[in-house]
Amino acid sequence: MAAEADPPAPHRPAMTAEEVLTTTRSVRRRLDLDRPVALDTVRECLEIALQAPSGSNAQRWRFVVVTDAERRAAIGATYRKACAAYLDSPAAAGSLFADDPEQAQVQQRVHASITYLAERMDRVPVLVIPCLRLPQAGALPAGNQAGLWGSLLPAAWSYMLAARTRGLATAWTTLHLTYEREIADVLGLPDDVRQGALIPTAHHTGSTFRPAPRRPLDEVLHVDGWRHADG
Predict the structure, then answer these.
(1) What is the assigned CATH class of domain 30-138+148-208?
(2) Per-residue pLDDT reduced to its tens digit, 201-215
(3) Can you give the residue ranges of the Nitroreductase domain (predicted)?
């Protein structure tokens, strides 16, 4: 069970928006698996997340916060099963960019960190599952999936940003959705609630957050139409 309150943290200077946005990333290896996270801190982050936009201001988001050890164990077992299939697939992080030696090394590190987290998901103190409550029970509506999930994902990302400002580390994953129904049964979710992500949340064991290397902007920027230089 999550602790009632975190001990007072040493004073940290206020972070700029740019610093928060450029240093919030998926943390897998440096999650503190032994230090509890206060539920009040998670609630603060979710209060901020609720300020995100949603289509027609419907606010159909729901957030399931899991701290119970038995439920975390069940989710962890299902996640490991889904992750094993992913890691053996051509889409796995370690299989990408094989023709680029420098990038391949990065991908191998990502692959190893995904494996590391999968083996320990049940030990992460807080698992946050952002969900959507659909207008009607049953299958997802056909058509504009971007509009549907665009009403949830900004709030989920805002949660991760808010956690970053409080010294917490998070990771974004959707691998568990291969077995979404199994997770729904563990948590007693009704049929009209669909899961959008799984966000393990813990204190950070490292001392720094820093920007990650990314492709140059000009490789991914298209102004007034599609450039064909990159094929």
Answers:
(1) alpha beta
(2) 999 997 777 787 888
(3) 23-192
